[in-house]
Amino acid sequence: MFSTADFRTGLKIELDGKPFTIIEFLHVKPGKGGAFVRTKLKNMITGQVLEKTFRAGEKVARPNIHEKEMQYLYQAKGEFCFMDTETFDQIFLRAEQLKESRLFLKENTNVKVLIYNDRIMDIELPNFVNLRIDQTDPGIKGD
């Protein structure tokens, strides 16, 4: 269980049986009445963003999410192949499951796969990737 004092941007919580990620939070202490925490939450399944207010000290559930280290191997027929780095099992994910993360995948890159109740939710890309620029337009004088 998480308390509202534990809220941080990027924290994953569970509300009404659904996993959410905290996008923004603001602790408010009005002059009159009790303190509260105003949050913006993103549903990890649908991508829907909603605003919710919690009373200070309120408890929220911790979702059953775990991360697994996997390596992106290749893309074939609209499916992306990933290999578990521990067991060497391969799984295939559709482009819809990866959302915009698929645009930044490079072969043989290690990624973290987020799994919620034995269902793959999303992947976390590495913070830094080394790429090589093959071609660029010539610079125009004055730019």
From TrEMBL:
GO cellular component: cytoplasm
Gene Ontology terms for molecular function: translation elongation factor activity
Keywords assigned: Elongation factor, Protein biosynthesis
Sequence ranges assigned to domain Translation elongation factor P/YeiP central in this UniProt record: 67-121
Keyword match Protein biosynthesis: yes
SUPFAM superfamilies membership: Nucleic acid-binding proteins, Translation proteins SH3-like domain
Domain of life, source organism: Bacteria
Entry keyword Protein biosynthesis: yes
NCBIfam families: PRK00529.1
The family this protein is said to belong to: Belongs to the elongation factor P family.
Name recorded for this polypeptide: Elongation factor P
Organism listed in the record: Aerophobetes bacterium
Lineage per the UniProt record: Bacteria, Candidatus Aerophobota
